[in-house]
Amino acid sequence: MSDIKITTRDFNFYYDSFKALSDINMDIETNRVTALIGPSGCGKSTFLRSLNRMNDIILGTRVEGRVTLDGQDIYDKNVDVVDLRRRVGMVFQKSNPFPKSIFDNVAYGLRINGERDKSVIAHRVEQSLKDAAIWEEVKDRLEDSAIGLSGGQQQRLCIARALAVKPEVILMDEPASALDPIATQKIEELIFELKKEYTIVIVTHNMQQAARVSDYTAFFYLGELIEFGETDQIFTNPGKKKTEDYVTGRFG
Amino acid sequence: MKIKWKQIQEKIGFTVLGLSTLLIILVLAFIIYDILSKGAGVISWKFITDKPRRGMTEGGIWPAIVGTFWVSLVTVVFSVPIGMFTAIYLNEYAKQGRIVRLIRLAIRNLSGVPSIVYGLFGFALFTLMLNLGLSVISSGLTLGLLTLPWTITASEEALKTVPMSYREGALALGATKWQTIRTNVLPYAVPGMLTGTILGLARAAGETAPILFTGVAFFWPILPKFPTNLLQQFMALPYHLFIMSTQHHEIVKVRPLAYGTALVLIVLILSMNAIAIWIRYRFRKKYKRA
How does strand A88-91 pair with strand B52-53? Predict the structure, then answer.
């Protein structure tokens, strides 16, 4: 039986005085894909970014409650945020490759974490690009600028970049929303492969994608976690009326 | 009928804008033509490399060129690092609130302070209080203060153009704030910072008032070696130009020399601007954005 990687207990989140998340209680299982769904503005992205404390860089944010990674509270004063972010990686909605070469993009995380050995870097870069299913397309042009890649390739590059630092969890914020259907499919296949080694939490607007890709689904509405359960159950036999209304498209 | 009026308005607007641009270009062209035609005749290798002779009615302006160079160097060494680091602190580290807004307001206002006020302030602070005397250093530091608001503002603007997504992407990989800035923000902001700084520097190189009280001399042809020369008085192109045009005992006779000095000064400043633009172009090519 898989164990729990991340838990949240009575988690509240504030942007200044606005309460964006209320009493979120959730267990995220290891090596599974958990999808966060809900209408715009329901707090799912805020919640995702709370898992690696990326919200810390925004002014005026405040949290209450606990978020634990492997049993340790990540908001504890003694926690090294820098190390947390290495363990919990993130892929953003709009792919953001750095204006460097493809190689340097993937090597970036390694280098800033202190890796100096060139052969180690080269090997890890190759492995990450392979794991992100983009190696074949870029192996002959690693020194080219990453900006020259297509949207779908850029996103897979960002995934490779996140993988290179060997995280334990990968957070994905609508990773395929800016991509065409073929690129989207590639990303979804990739997620399916990745969950063997990583724990994945994915925010998506696309319900069909959530149904295709995830093991567990959490439905957010106006900052509250309405329902959480196995994906099949949420989509075919939801417990709450609101959930049912959302997944059947009555609103959203 | 309505449609016709809109078209006429458009044509009027376009004409006014076009004429304004033309006016500015004409003014610039006139200045360049005037200086070029009256000063070009004086320019020669001797003029540039020789010391002034016979009460400045003959000879060259080499000491003034060297003086301008050394003062500018002190200005750069002083204002560029301080300016850049201040901009980095204000833009990346400081908690954005009332205090930071006040600081920014103060900096913007400093750029509007008349240069003669800078001269008096520099005289009081560097020449007298810090006992640096009338010297290249005093003038350089004073000009440095003059350039500082420019450098800070230009650097801040450059930092602002770096997308937030670069910083977020780096932080999400486990980079510290300084690592992010050093490896993923500064490289892309530096060209803008340099450009703005050089433009500010070009302005400072042409200033007369700040160096008036702090060290410039009318006739100081001796050029000691570095670093002794920093503590001595010096000649400078803008001041030289001023004296030749208004204070010299034989104004009419030396007018061509004055124009020659003006020409050299303008060429110097235009070159600095050209270098700034070239740097920006090269770096833009190297770090092409998404």
Answer: unpaired
A4-247 belongs to CATH 3.40.50.300: yes
Average pLDDT rounded to a whole number, residues B147-164: 92
Measure A86 CA to nearest chain B CA, in Å: 5
Residue B139 domain-assigned (yes or no):
yes
pLDDT at A1 over 60: no
User: What's the whole-number mean pLDDT along residues B19-25?
Assistant: 95
Domain hosting residue B108, numbered range: 65-286
Mean pLDDT of the A145-162 span: 91
Domain annotation covers residue B26: no
Extract long-range pairs of B255-260: CB within 8 Å, 24+ residues apart.
Answer: B255/B38, B256/B38, B256/B39, B256/B41, B256/B42, B257/B42, B257/B56, B257/B57, B257/B61, B258/B39, B259/B35, B259/B38, B259/B39, B259/B42, B260/B39, B260/B40, B260/B41, B260/B42, B260/B43, B260/B47, B260/B61
User: Cβ contact (<8 Å) for B176 and A161?
Assistant: no
Question: Which of A149-158, B7-16, B211-220 is predicted least confidently?
Answer: B211-220
How many angstroms separate the CA atoms of B101 and A188, rounded?
A: 46
Nearest to B174 among A86, A99, A154 (CB): A86
The answer to whether residue B285 neighbours chain A at the CB level (below 8 Å) is no
d(CA B76, CA B201) in angstroms, rounded, equals: 7
Measure A42 CA to nearest chain B CA, in Å: 22
* pLDDT of B276 over the 90 cut: no
pTM of the model: 0.81
Give the SS3 label for residue B127. Answer: helix
pLDDT tens digits, one per residue of A58-85: 888 999 999 999 989 999 989 999 999 9
Q: Does B21 touch chain A (CB under 8 A)?
A: no
Q: For residue A75, count CB atoms less than 10 angstroms from its CB and return exposed for 0-12, middle for 13-18, buried for 19 or more.
A: middle
Interface of A with B (CB under 8 A): 52, 54, 57, 59, 82-83, 85-86, 89-90, 92, 94, 96-99, 108-109, 111-113, 145, 147, 154, 158, 161-162, 165
pLDDT of residue B287: 64
Q: Which residue has the higher pLDDT, A34 or B216?
A: A34
Domain count, chain B: 1
> What is the ipTM metric for this complex?
0.90
Q: With beta carbons under 8 A apart, name residues in chain A contacting B91.
A: none
Most A CBs within 10 A among B99, B173, B180, hence the mutation to make, goes to: B173
User: Domain residues of chain A, as ranges?
Assistant: 4-247
Contacts of A96 in chain B (CB under 8 A): 163, 165-166, 168-169, 290
Nearest chain B residue to A166 by CA: give it. B173
Determine whether the interchain pair A96/B188 forms a contact, defined as Cβ–Cβ distance below 8 Å. Answer: no
The answer on pLDDT for B252 being more than 60 is yes
**pLDDT of B49 over the 50 cut:** yes
Interface touch A147/B179, C-beta < 8 Å:
no
Which CATH number characterizes residue B145's domain? 1.10.3720.10
